[in-house]
Amino acid sequence: MKLDILNALDSKKILKELNASHSKELAASRLVELKLPNKKSEKYRYFDIEPLIQKDWNFTKKEPIQVKTGKSIVIKNGIVEQLSNLEGVEVEMKEFNDIDSQHFDSLYYLSHLLCEKAIIIRVKDETKLNIEHIVTENNCLISYRIVILSDANTHTQIYETYSGDAKDTLLLTGYDIFISRDSTLKFIKNQTINNNSYTPISTNRYKVDSNATFKLGTFDFIKDNGLNIFRVELKESANFDASHLLYANGKVKGGTISEIIHEGKSSNSNQISKNILDNNARGIFDALIRVQNSAKWTKADQNSKSVLLHSGAYMASKPQLEIYIDDLEASHGSTTGQLDEAQLFYLQSRGINKVDAKKMLIIAFANEVISNIDDEYIKNVVHTHFESAYYGKSNLECLETCHSCEDMVLEEN
Amino acid sequence: MSKVLKIKDLKAKIGEKDILKGLNLELEEGKVHAIMGPNGAGKSTLSKAIVGHYDVEITDGDIVYKDKSIKENEPEERALEGLFLSFQNPVEIPGVNNAYFLRTAVNAKRKHEGKEELNAAEFLREMKSKIEELGMKKELINRSLNEGFSGGEKKRNEILQMMMLEPDVIILDEIDSGLDIDALRAVSEGINKMKDGKRSFLVITHYSRILDYIKPDYIHVLKDGQIVHTGGPELVEKLEKEGYESLGSL
């Protein structure tokens, strides 16, 4: 099926064409309003979306299988293969219709329409949960959605990883995350996409309730196209801290498209995007912060920093502020350039050769975001994956990220 | 006495501006040479030219180090051969851990000299004693390179690098700028401990204050891109009293 045929249909016909339940009427109506994107769509201007919309896709079949239990949730080609047996976590497959009626992205609604039952994860206690996505099926459209409901006063860390080298596949997934009041959720996405691999588009909705904190880290190391899309709503005194690291190499396009909506007063957001682009890679950072008139005393900061390692690399950076009140603190900025010559020279002047000095500076640039990860184990894994993607090998050395022996040696008599 | 560094009729420019206009200078092994001169004379350009800074274009003349011309060499090649510049304004490099950077530099030099590289514990033990000698805060080594360091901490960090890398020729560009008396004393003590009768120093300064702590063997006066006068330590007093103008031009 070609997705672009949906643009000519009304909501009822969309539901019928996609075999979707009538309870998904809202998603279908929003899809009719927004239309599927083409190359002229503002938010997709810098991403090759049209071939994906025009392609004749096979859909994966989601036959129920025997589900194991283990420490992680494992989803292979859209089918849940393993459920978590962690205490304080409940997982079920269920129809989910509490979708975002204001989302800017039509693919968010399409993925809901393609998802008969969502994977619903309820977090009831302090926990660290891993979600593994495995993508091996070639030449198909795989779509599934995950819902995370964190109970009030819970503190959760979710770490998601991707593996598998499916070819010519579109992985259209996403999360609807609801963080209840006084809760904290730390979410880390670690994704490496190899050359000539599948295309992941993750389109998400986050709702952060009063006094809750959401700390998002996306780490995308791509040699094929990929996109992160999200819309987040912040209630009173909610906090949102987003760090994005993109390393793209080759003739690829990828990055982040986002909207942060400050709805409640005294809400805070801080979004930083760091992009390292090599060869003919194109990075995308199209990010809007909207401060509504109900959100006085908001603090909102947004920054994009990009390093171009090749004359063919290109960064499309578009930070935007849309403000409807006077009483707030807000800033945004964007810089794109090459490695700092003075820093490079300083390292060389101490005997470090130019190749290693460049590597050191690139890793330092990335480290400013990687160091925001609180979990030491995950921090080292992400660092290693970044080095592997950038440098072709993992070469983590003592003192580079781990400083455990320092105190011991420095304190000994 | 052998000459470890010879600068021969050096002409150099930064951008379109000619700065060094036929400068001649020879550094003796084991001696402390001080270069003094007014603002804009070309003191920092000279130090940059010696270590191969990208700003400086050498248009004529030569720099001979240990009997080999180095003017075409990369900065890291010059460093590995034993040249060290303590920067007037060391750059901050966020995200590069100070200890990791220094261990990489030390091991690059050891590898170049055919020595075994130091593991983390060996390196840290060696660094620890140097930190204590310099009165540096231990936490500075675990921070990003020079990021958020005060002026004095940056200069101490330069001297720490110098002590760890054990170079043969040390160029100190305005090492005293921005230092209070205590920091100046600590930095000078660190430098004086490096004197071993073989190592040479080129101390670039505006003022004589640093020369109370690091006793020079020779004073060279640099004006308008050339060395206009060379003398012994007694020249410092004359310059203090009469200024650079008293020496005229070349």
Overview of the structural elements:
With 413 residues, chain A is of the alpha/beta class. Chain A folds into two domains: 278 residues; 75 residues, no CATH class. In chain A, the strands form two sheets. Chain A has an eleven-stranded mixed β-sheet, covered by helices on one side. The mean pLDDT of chain A is 92. With 250 residues, chain B is of the alpha/beta class. The longest helix of chain B has 15 residues. Chain B is 33% helix and 30% strand. Classes of the chains: A alpha/beta (413), B alpha/beta (250).
In short:
The complex is a heterodimer of chains A (413) and B (250). Chain A is α/β, with parallel strands linked by helices.
Q: Indicate the proportion of strand residues of chain A.
A: 35-45%
What's the N-to-C terminus distance of chain B? 26 Å
**SSE topology string of chain B:** EEEHEEHEEHHEHEHEEEH
Evaluate the radius of gyration of chain B: 18 Å
Overall geometry of chain A comes to globular
Q: Provide the β-strand percentage band of chain B.
A: 25-35%
Mean pLDDT, all residues of chain B = 91
Widest beta sheet: strand line-up of chain B: 6-9-10-3-11-12
What is the helix content of chain A?
10-25%
Poorly predicted regions of chain A are: none
Basic shape of chain B? globular
Content-based structural category of chain A? alpha/beta
How are the secondary structure elements laid out?
The complex is a heterodimer of chains A (413) and B (250).
Chain A (H helix, E strand, L loop, with lengths): L10 H7 L7 H10 L15 H5 L13 E3 L1 E5 L2 E6 L4 E6 L11 H9 L3 E6 L3 E8 L6 E10 L4 E9 L6 E10 L4 E10 L5 E10 L4 E10 L3 E9 L4 E11 L3 E10 L5 E11 L3 E10 L6 E11 L5 E10 L4 E10 L3 H8 L5 H17 L5 H16 L12 H8 L2
Parallel strand pairs in A: 1-3, 2-6, 5-7, 6-8, 7-9, 8-10, 9-11, 10-12, 11-13, 12-14, 13-15, 14-16, 15-17, 16-18, 17-19, 18-20
Antiparallel strand pairs in A: 2-3, 4-5
Chain B lengths: L2 E12 L2 E12 L3 E5 L6 H9 L4 E10 L2 E2 L5 H6 L2 E4 L6 E5 H15 L7 H15 L9 E2 L5 H15 L3 E5 L7 H13 L6 E6 L12 E6 L2 E6 L2 H9 L8
Parallel strand pairs in B: 3-10, 3-11, 6-9, 9-10
Antiparallel strand pairs in B: 1-2, 1-4, 4-5, 7-8, 11-12
Helix pairs in contact in B: 4-5, 5-6
